[in-house]
UniProtKB/TrEMBL annotation:
Signal peptide: none annotated. It comes from Pseudonocardia broussonetiae. InterPro entries: DUF34/NIF3, DUF34/NIF3_bac, DUF34/NIF3_sf, N-reg_PII/ATP_PRibTrfase_C. A divalent metal cation binds at residues 66-67, 105, 336, 340. Homohexamer. One of its GO terms (cellular component) is cytoplasm. Belongs to the GTP cyclohydrolase I type 2/NIF3 family. The keyword tRNA processing does not apply. The keyword Metal-binding applies. Keywords: Metal-binding. One of its GO terms (molecular function) is metal ion binding. This is GTP cyclohydrolase 1 type 2 homolog.
Length: 380
């Protein structure tokens, strides 16, 4: 069976749903033909000259990256601009580019799950949870007969009744409806001025809140009554495993000094290195991690009651102020690129799972961290 770019996009967007992306983000297919066949895929953190060149060298028809190439709005991709040159190089080489960024950060599993696994942390849940998409429940009352099937099918066609891997989910119960048509009414059952009692079925279905308008319209269009009765209820938000960062535990407690060495050994080396803030002899067992820039989640790490928080791009002032908070965890700061690199193997497995073994899937090992030189400072 031939695998296409579209097949792999479907698998990647199932694993990393675009709806999880931040509203400022740019994810999905950047360039390339979804119907092109694929026999080689390269997965990397960054869409930069080094990884684009590597994709060309191995003949990859698809380059999957975590970071976007065109994050901010552009008015053109001329080859006389750095990013435009990359787009032209990809197109000329027949390589599509697909990005999973903040949607991969919040997915389950996602970027931080890969980081936790690399560090030997057993994940218990998200650091900053994201609720599941909000749901409504629609309840309507239909006269017994073929209209029940017609209404059910109409609501299902607009997205009602989908729960997990199941569709057309509903609950029905029997009852008696009562109404009295008034002057001006054109009742499907009964006559004007006379009280009617009708055997009816109460039909209940859940629906994504974003589909509320379409589902209600489908109900009105398919229901035999001139004025169908229905209830529309907003369901409570449910917690989920989705969200930013992860919280978990080590198999055995160890010192912050030993844990920092563990982090350095688990991640690819960079000029940035690995640095820690806290008592080197502090005991570490419960751990929070966040792949990428994570100082926005410092407060969540304190609230989680962990012993250490591992992330990237910690800024001086938030880190200093964090250390003053009672119960603050120790901090381990790593290079942004290194914290997200373990995700590449996870994404590669997603791609492999969408093929019959007929696609060569590789993870780039080229270090694209922008920091290239580290020099120890002199004594003060």
């Amino acid at each position: 069976m031939t695998t296409t770019v579209r097949d792999l996009i479907t698998a990647l967007e199932t694993a990393y749903p675009p709806r999880l992306a931040a509203d400022w983000d740019a994810v999905g297919l950047v360039c390339g033909d979804p119907d092109e066949p694929v026999d080689t895929v390269l997965v990397a953190v960054d869409p930069v000259p080094e990884t684009v060149a590597e994709a060309a060298e191995i003949g990859a028809q698809l380059l999957v990256t975590h970071h976007p190439l065109l994050l901010r709005g552009v008015h053109g991709v001329g080859a006389d601009t750095p990013k435009g040159r990359l787009v032209h190089r990809l197109v000329r080489g027949g390589t599509a580019l697909f990005t999973a960024h903040t949607n991969a950060d919040s997915a389950d599993p996602g970027v931080s799950d890969a980081l936790a696994a690399a560090l030997g942390v057993t994940v218990e849940g998200p650091l900053v949870g994201a609720p599941l998409p909000p749901l409504d429940k629609i309840v309507t009352f239909i006269p017994v007969g073929p209209a029940i099937t017609a209404v059910h099918e109409a609501l299902s066609a607009e997205g009602a009744g989908n729960i997990g891997d199941y569709s057309h989910c509903s609950f029905a119960s029997a009852g008696t409806g009562q109404f009295k048509p008034l002057d001006g009414a054109n009742p499907a059952i009964g006559t004007v001025g006379r009280l009617e009692r009708v055997a009816e079925t109460r039909l209940e279905m859940v629906l994504p809140r974003e589909k509320r308008r379409a589902v209600v319209a489908a109900l009105r269009a398919s229901h035999p009554y001139e004025e169908p009765a229905f209830d529309l209820l907003e369901l409570a938000e449910l917690p989920s495993a989705l969200g930013l960062g992860r919280v978990g535990a080590l198999a055995e407690p160890e010192s912050l000094r030993a844990f920092t060495a563990r982090v350095a050994a688990a991640l690819p080396s960079t000029a940035w290195g690995v640095r820690a803030a806290g008592d080197p002899d502090r005991t570490v067992e419960r751990v929070a991690v966040c792949g990428g820039a994570g100082d926005s989640a410092l407060g969540a790490a304190v609230a989680a009651g962990v012993d250490v928080y591992v992330t990237a791009d910690l800024r001086h002032h938030p880190a200093s102020e964090h250390g003053l908070l009672p119960g603050s965890p120790a901090l381990v700061d790593v290079a942004h690129w290194a914290s997200e690199w373990p995700w590449c193997a996870q994404a590669a497995d997603v791609v492999r799972g969408a093929t019959d073994g007929n696609v060569d899937v590789r993870v780039s090992r080229r270090r694209t961290d922008p920091w290239t030189v580290a020099v120890a400072g002199g004594e003060t």
